[in-house]
Amino acid sequence: MNTSRCPQFQRFTVVALLVLSSGTALVVASASGDNSRSLLPFADASGLMRTFTATNQIDVSNPFFARLGSNGRTCSSCHQQSDAWAVSAQHIRDRFESSQGLDPIFRPNDGANCSTDDISTLDSRRRAYSQLLSKGLIRVSRPIPANADFALIGIDDPYHCASSEDLGLYRRPLPTTNLRFLTTVMWDGRESHPGNSLEQNLAVQATDATLGHAQAAQPPTSGELQAIVAFEMGLSTAQAVDFGAGSLSAGGISGGPEALAQQDFYPGINDALGADPSGKSFNPIAMTLFSKWENTHNVGPEADKRASIARGEVLFNTLPIAIQGVKGLNDKLGVETIPGTCTTCHDTPNVGNHSLPLPIDIGIASAERRTPDMPLYTFRCNSGDIVQVTDPGRALSTGKCEDIGKFKGPILRGLAARAPYFHNGSAATLMDVVQFYNVRFNLNLNSQQKADLVAFLSAL
Q1: pTM score, two decimals?
Q2: What is the Cα–Cα distance from 341 to 317, expressed in whole angstroms?
Q3: Which of 52, 335, 361, 420 is at a distance of 20 to 30 A from 175, taking alpha carbons?
Q4: Contact at 8 Å (CB) between 371 and 426?
Q5: Total structural domains in the chain?
Q6: Torsion of CA 26, 31, 32, 34, to 10 degrees
Q7: b/e map of 10-28 (b: 16 or more CB within 10 Å)?
Q8: Could you tell me if residue 131 is inside a domain?
Q9: Per the domain annotation, does 163 fall within a domain?
Q10: Cβ atoms < 10 Å from Cβ of 76
Q11: Does residue 297 lie in a domain region?
């Protein structure tokens, strides 16, 4: 292999032997590494994550790993195999320390809090890249659409960088795996264009990323785009082993990336709003990976954790949620309270995103959840309403006030490898995610239920 083409492979080639509580020995790639040329599993906080491909290898000659721009970045700079093809904040910090902030992910055009930040010294780089280091956030610059039915009337920006022509939006890179389940490309859907196929939208996204993130002088060739999209569409990634429960794909359990690669899917499958093109009714029991661990009476070092994962799956499918105040859902249906479960919004079977585009606002970008490191934008809608958010989300694509603060729900597989969570990294851990929903929807979860939900989400 020519490692000069893929410099990330020169940094880490550590492999370890891991012995599970059951006595099973596994060869794994180091969790502190960036990538592996093979499909060895990578360790994360709760177990081992692994990618599956039909060829049983990662083709590092693919232009996904090539420097197509001018700043040294490749697609894999922000989409690491070791992080379920996204990035974890901890690994970004590791890369900063090992490179003194010179790794290609650290580029001022979008890695810094502001593109004009001083990066001349190690200390200045640490300050400039604080959002990337703390939460794994890339700066997305977007203007307000000319036809918007809202106007920007206030900016409170800790970095003194944003304007109406260049709103600074800090967002987590989404995974470039499990893409065949997508119905919306990007958090705000800005790369989903009417009439395009998913592959066409992904090609547009790859073009924009190359011109923007990688600062290329010209777009990728059609051949390069086809190769990148084919590579991404061929990746299936999921948690494969849980340190407490053992294998997530043995004994009739259907976790892990191989089963995920065989998962049935079409846009609208099991749609909670009744738009499944097959005519089938919505089934809230959308997650069935670990159902064989329900009501088991096994004993041994793995039994308790398996039972917890199974209970978490049941809660995800059945815990009653009174859904209120969700823009894009309650107002769309004209229903003040929707009786639902987690799977009302996470309805794609065994995947967890929505099977049709559903941009919604659950309050992640609201002024009430703003932290000091985030800007706050104040908008006046043509209706006279005043809205304050840290990120207007979908509204910067549609120009509609009703879309301020709306984002898609991501695919949930491989969660354990890519902390933190939500579009703005505001949840450091999966327990923080569960706690957000517990408060937001008054779920009154007890400590055991929270732990079970975390166990389930970590096993995805």
Answers
A1: 0.92
A2: 6
A3: 361
A4: yes
A5: 1
A6: 100
A7: ebbeeeeeeebeeeeebeb
A8: no
A9: no
A10: 24
A11: yes
